[in-house]
Design a protein that fits this description.
It is built from 8 helices and 9 strands. By secondary structure, it is an alpha/beta fold. The chain has 2 domains: 155 residues, SPOUT methyltransferase, trefoil knot domain (Alpha/beta knot, 3-Layer(aba) Sandwich); 57 residues, Trp Operon Repressor, Chain A, CATH 1.10.1270. Strand 5, helix 3 and strand 6 form a beta-alpha-beta unit. Helix 3 packs across helix 5. Bound molecules: S-adenosylmethionine.
């Protein structure tokens, strides 16, 4: 999979994709990430990427011309067919990212992410490019760089071969419409807190049943709305 990110702060990405599962996916060439400085597509001597808003009001708005030029260039250079690509602007106004969306995106060949700044981007960027808008949650960050990192991380762990044991992604929270079960490792007792007996029993069927029950019970208590979703599949592991 190829990921292109357009930003005015490319240095923010210098190290973030070098660690853990994403770092290994890059080394194994399952994933290649290119980060582009939006200023490379500006045409004025100040290399401006923003301007004041029509209609007045606080803050600045990202200009449409460099954004469209950058995205069109990046897409043309990729020579990947449009049907295999998602182009998305990171935006709190977008559709919230879900595990299902990350899974869909992980099956594509090309992801182009645009990080906004200031008050946001000129709306005509969306009109011209047809970009999707992806939110990472109902709160406002100062820029789209961290949301772009979140998207890359979420979908990389779903790439075939990115996780050494693919079962771990299959039992993760949200994969089956409920939260993950709780995990324990040694020691068996810590400050009088013992690991649930069944996990030490060696009885795989009983362990699977306990995990399934805990996953559902915890989901019911913490995120009951997830269980109202018809796509809930009970997973045994
Ligand atoms: C300060 S925010 C702009 C917020 C915008 N005025 C609004 O209220 O919807 C600047 C940029 O940060 C990014 N951003 C902020 N919060 C985000 C979120 N929850 N999800 C995705 N991107 C976000 C977007 O790229 C956005 O253009």
């Amino acid at each position: 999979m190829r990921v292109d990110i357009v930003t005015i702060f490319p240095d923010m990405f210098r190290e973030v994709f070098q660690f853990g599962i994403v770092g290994r996916a890059v080394k194994a060439e399952l994933l290649s990430v290119a980060v582009h400085d939006l200023r490379d597509w500006t045409t004025d001597k100040h290399r401006s990427t923003d301007d004041s808003p029509y209609g007045g009001g606080p803050g600045m708005v990202m200009k449409v011309e460099p954004l469209v030029a950058a995205v069109e260039d990046v897409i043309a250079r990729s020579s990947i067919e449009d049907a295999r690509r998602v182009l998305a602007l990171m935006s709190p106004r977008g559709v919230p990212l879900s595990q299902a969306r990350a899974s869909e995106m992980s099956k594509l060949d090309h992801i182009v992410l645009v990080a906004g700044r200031y008050e946001g981007v000129d709306e005509r960027f969306l009109d011209v490019t047809g970009a999707d808008e992806i939110s990472i949650g109902d709160y406002v960050l100062s820029g789209g760089e961290i949301p772009a990192m979140v998207v890359v991380d979420a979908l990389t762990r779903l790439l075939p071969g990115a996780i050494s044991d693919p079962r771990s992604a299959e039992v993760d929270s949200f994969s089956h419409g409920h939260l993950d079960f709780p995990h324990y490792t040694r020691p068996a007792v810590f400050r009088d807190l013992a690991v649930p007996e069944v996990l030490l029993s060696g009885n795989h069927a009983a362990v699977g049943e306990w995990r399934q029950e805990r996953a559902i019970a915890d989901t019911r208590r913490r995120r009951p709305e997830l269980l109202n979703n018809e796509s809930v599949h009970l997973s045994r592991s």
